[in-house]
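Lab channel / #folding
Pinned by the channel admin:
"Please post every new chain as: sequence first, then the structure tokens as a reply. Keep commentary short and put observations after the output so the thread stays searchable."

First post following the new format, from NK:
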Amino acid sequence: MSAVTAAPPLASAPAARGGTTLTGTWSLVRFILRRDRVRLLVWSLAIPALYLASLGEYTAMADDPEGMQARAALVQTPAMVSMTGPGYGTDDYTVGAAVSNELVLWMVLALAVMSILQVVRHTRAEEESSRSELVRAAAVGRHAPVVAALVVVLLVNVVVAALSSAVLVGAGLEAVDSVAMSLGVAMSAMTFGAIALVASQVTEHSRGATGLSMAALGAAFTLRTIGDMQEQHGSWVSWLSPIAWAQQMRAYVDLRWWPAALGAVVIVVLLFVASTLASRRDFGAGLVPDRPGRADALPSLRTPAALVWLQQRMALLWTALGLAFMWFATGTIVNQVGAMTESLANNPVYASVLGSGEVTKAFVGIIVLYAALGAAAYGIVAALRAKTEEDAGRAEYALATPVSRARWLGANLGVTSAGTVVVLVTGVLALAGGAAVAGTEDVTFGEVTEAGLLFLPALAVFVGLAAALFAWIPKATSLVWLLLEYTIVVALFADLFHLPDWARRISPFWWVPDPLTAGVDWVHVGGLCAVALVLFVLAFAGFRRRDVATK
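Reply from TO:
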């Protein structure tokens, strides 16, 4: 006679084991920190490094009252109000006022992007890949993954605020104002992280959640721009944007803490909304369901390129439209740049940034550079979608069909390259169109367009480098982001930092000619094309030789 021993029941629900909906939160926090340690380290160091780099310029002008007042005159022009903020303390412009007026906007944008990407990566993207379902099958509460993602984003923003405050205080700025400004930036960035959490409940796909969140960030930037240009120090429209809340703290001029409370209240409200929405949807699904597709695919959709296009089209649409709107708005105020004083144009600090040519053309050249940087960022993100497909195991399925590796990678790079061109061209045409609508005579539509198109070979270098790193060293793809950050420093501050020629040549954008203020060196253009071609060839060769990661 044999006895059958019953297996113990599986206690899949934490409540059955005496747990709560937050059981396992700190284990997930440690897991996320370990998984994203390199990514988070780069973000944590990049923002303080930007403060440090900019402080070198500001402190160099601290002993030049005329130079500082010339800078204050620049900050008050409509062109710079749209690109920086409302401008406080311009009557007696100090280093602290310069930091607060000119850097807060860009620090909020950078940290907001980080917060959006991190929240979507560890919430909606995890559900979409089914990894979150496996995690929740263990001793993990229902809300633990979401809370863990938010805790990590909060920790990173706090660390960045602490390091930024240390850098600012180390440069001799007031400690209280430094801490207040850094916390205000972190609070605004966290607001967009909470927006991303709400978006993750609405849409079923991570690309849609990221697109909605980025659209909200673009709308906030636009509202802040419109509000700040309507009235000195900002109008009521400015207060509709979380970006303005950090700027309205008026650090180093007339510090006030209460605008930061707006961010705290909005974050709490958004978290409540996200929690309510999450309880009303099925796990893995969004509140807005996908439209049912055709039973059979059209012949035009039965190719790898068609699949990549379906994956990237919405991100391309919102990126191109958002940036084009921003550059069009900037173009409409180009004709006001000529009103700057001669002392500003002749100031050596601004001469190093704007160049020795006409101020209007030099300013347009900088905006074209910004448009190219935006296109480069899009190109990198789109190119690394191939790595996302491989990590998720979908590349393995595609390559198991009669699709060669070269065709699959070529489809990804082809759609990515075309999308990058679209983002650049629409942005440049919008800038030129805005300048034309405003009646600008110092620069023509054709000149602006030519200046933008000359960046295409350099953009191909960024896309090619991302592809080559993915093909040969997938774990090192973050290096392409370091190159983009270095390119920004070289493009804007190479002369201020007295960088040697060899250091400047590392940046692909250094080789791009500027037809607005100088001639076109076609040798440099051809060199960039050759480098891009070599990188693409290396990408195809490397991807054919290495193993494809399986899920």
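NK: The chain has two domains: 19-45+105-288, 302-551.
TO: also worth noting, The chain has a mean pLDDT of 82.
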